[in-house]
Amino acid sequence: MNESDVQARQSRHAPELLRSLTNCGRRGRSVDTLGVVDIVQVAQRIADDVLFPAALSTDASDVIPRELLDVLADAGLYGLVAPEESGGLGADFGTVCAVQEALASGCLTTAFLWTQHIGLVRALGAGGRPDLRARWLGPLARGEVRAGVALGGALPQPTLRARPDGPGWLLEGVSPFVSGWGRIDVLHAAARTPDNQIVWLLVDAVEGPSVRAERLRLAALNATATVRVTFDQLPVPAGRVTGQHPVSGGTAPQVLRMHAALALGVTARCCQLLGPTSLDSELGSLRTELGPGSLVVPDQIVDRTWGRDFTYYDTVGPVVHVGFADPYCPHGRAAVVEVAHAQSWAPHDGGTLVVIQGPRFSSRAESLHHSAQGWSVVGMTGHPEAVLARELALCYTSIAVVTDLDAGVEAGQGVSHQEVLAAFPPIAEVGIRVRKPNAPIGGTLAMVTTPSPGGWEKDPKGRWLCETHKPKKPAPNWDGPPPRQ
Q1: In this predicted structure, what is the pLDDT of residue 407?
Q2: Which one of 99, 242, 341, 403 has the largest count of C-beta atoms within 10 Å of its C-beta?
Q3: What is the domain extent for residue 437?
């Protein structure tokens, strides 16, 4: 089957599929009004009924048939992360990964190219210049304008640079891998500035005197039409700047998770073709694996520390025994989970944090022991803070962000300090928003108190006390922390 046959087949099949999708929503909604839960089902049906039957022919083509991308646009997938007021679905990060995995199970080439579009839509949807949002976000969400990405300026050794040119910029250099040439309309280009910032620019994906594209032949995904783009003093007006920020020093964990979704989708299709096997359960466990960038809201703690002050009552006042069966406040945990979802960072609700003494990292044997016990994450903070907060009757909630895989669960020399530091900046930028407005943050990112109506009250000293953890009665003649009895 040649490319024209594939296009004709998909052109006939796409309208039938889209008509059938109008009945796939839980409440019989049309494709235009599908919710984010339903859109995962839509993506899977597109993968099964459109992308997978044509996958071999697509991969053998010189470029992805445009009609396949039209199906994604007609289903609303180009606006998956766009705000609802801009015609999108406003999907959270977990839904994006689920859709991406579904599409990759049908055709990795098509899913990979569609993924390039998401970053620009998310950037515009998150804020920035109102004029850019007004001009670009609607057409991008509807798939009328389709975006690719040029990351030359974001590489450790940048190959694409931007220098000021009045209020705008001049682009010069190379972006070595740009996918979708001939199928995209605009590039979201990252360029390095003279002061070592990364500036993001909207550039038309069209060759001209200052833009040259050289087709690359790839052993895999060749139909993505990947090119090497050279910019020769291309002027970009200030009105096409979507953002600017310092070099982060590491790959954002969300990017790594989205890359994993592509691999999971291909693996899921292979498992389906093999039929029921033990691989199915292993694949399911991979989806819930706590990789770098995962947000964990633990509900249990294990103390492996020593020599730390773990009570306020060791020298003064009566001996106090506090209940610690459930170390973290249920109100605080629920608030963190709610706000994390609102920030498009799907959390793992529950898990065990084991606190080690530090400052060294774990040995391989210790790491394997932690894993064998079923403990979820390892850190060096969180105890005695949790038990001290309980003695004070303060609501305490821990937020754990995975920065690396511990020794014993990965090859090589294991985790290093540099690896942790490289992973944390992009995590902190998102993690600092995982809180209620005006809520005090205590200690580090991992320690949050979150007052909210209904479960809280203030003691005479103005401290927020959780209804769940407040003391039954104050200790007589004691002006220090109120004990629990």
Answers
A1: 52
A2: 99
A3: 291-466
